Amino acid sequence: MRQSSAIVGVLLCMTQVATAAPRDDVIEAFDAVMAAGKYRVEVATVTGKREHVMQLDVELPNRFHLRSPESEMILLPTGSWMRMDQQWMRMPVDMSKTVEAFTMRAIEDGKASLRDVSMGADAIVAGCEARVYEYRQSGKIMGVQSEAEVEMAVCKDTGLPSQIVTRSGSERKPTVVTSIYDFAAEISIEAP
Fold first, then answer.
1. pTM score, whole prediction
2. 118 vs 145: which has the higher pLDDT
3. What is the rounded distance in angstroms from the CA atom of residue 81 to the CA atom of residue 72?
4. Cβ atoms of 132 and 140 closer than 8 Å
5. Cα 189 versus chain centre, distance
6. Which of 26, 77, 90, 140 is the most buried (most CB within 10 A)?
7. In this structure, are residues 28 and 152 in contact, taking their beta carbons and an 8 Å threshold?
8. How far apart are CA 76 and CA 95, in angstroms?
9. What does each C-alpha distance from 13 to 26, 80, 180 come to in angstroms?
10. Mean of the pLDDT values across residues 145-157?
11. Residue 152: pLDDT band by 50, 70, 90 thresholds?
């Protein structure tokens, strides 16, 4: 009886170690993004038949440049600007601190919401040899309850994500968000 309890204990420890490693790898990838400090991400959001595409340049902790077909925004510690059509206008409220807090909190919320992390097959994803992880995201992100299935490809040579695909919503109206990261892009965010 004692021997079978010991065997069960060893198996439980082995299972915990096996399931903890992929989760730790995903958290390390989030931390690597923060350490990189600068990156570009192309985001395509598809809900039903609607698609929205945007590009976001980031210089952490507080410089952001967002581009979409409809508009463009630059958020700096010295002010915030928005371009509609071809006209830039300074926004009356500085949003950089809000976005900075949102970014940092969203990453911490994202780490806390990781569930059922597993390692999938290796693949070439967005131009790099990547280890692919799958997990559920379940919990509050920026105060809003979030439930999603996520696939994250992490480049083997850098430890940085190359692509994150998030699936959420209902079967009738699913939302798929595909984010492709570029850590080699030349990023310089200045006021217009």
1. 0.81
2. 118
3. 8
4. no
5. 20
6. 26
7. no
8. 8
9. 20, 51, 36
10. 92
11. very high
Whether the per-residue pLDDT at 129 is higher than 80: the answer is yes
User: What's the token pair of residue 70?
Assistant: 């409809």
Instruction: For residues 29 and 61, give the distance between their C-alpha atoms in angstroms, rounded to a whole number.
Output: 17
- Residue 131 dihedral angles phi and psi, to the nearest 5°: -95, 130
Q: Which of 137, 135, 125, 133 is nearest to 182 (CA)?
A: 125
- Phi-psi group of 58: left, alpha or beta (phi > 0 → left; psi -120 to 50 → alpha; rest → beta): beta
Which of 19, 16, 42, 14 has the alpha carbon at shortest distance from 134? 19
74/64 Cα distance (integer angstroms): 6
pLDDT in tens, 14-53: 333 333 489 999 999 999 998 999 999 999 999 988 999 9
- The amino acid present at 110, given as its one-letter code, is G
Cα distance between residue 6 and residue 138, in whole Å:
33
Give yes or no for a contact between 32 and 183, defined as CB atoms under 8 angstroms apart: no
Contact (CB, 8 A) for 153 and 125? yes
What are the start-end ranges of the H helices in 37-95? none
Residues 6 or more apart whose Cβ sits within 8 Å of residue 16: none
